[in-house]
Amino acid sequence: MTDKNENAMDKLKGKAKEATGKVTGDRRKEAEGKSDQAKAKADDAVGGAADRAKGVKDSLTDDDGR
């Protein structure tokens, strides 16, 4: 599974955990869900920045990697 897919799954799990916490009144579980979602969002941002940096590097180097 790719990082984007893993992050999407983590976001979904976080939403489910948050919803479960809200329904049951478990504030800790709700907070954990929000935290899981925030971590997945941050991981997406880091992955996107890495992809952009690789694209810039690739555009500046020739086919031999120089």
UniProtKB/TrEMBL annotation:
InterPro entries: CsbD, YjbJ_sf. Transmembrane segments: none annotated. It holds the Pfam family CsbD. Residues 1-44, 51-66 have a biased composition (Basic and acidic residues). Belongs to the UPF0337 (CsbD) family. Residues 3-54 form the CsbD-like domain. This is CsbD family protein. Coiled coil: none annotated. Residues 1-66 are annotated as: Disordered.
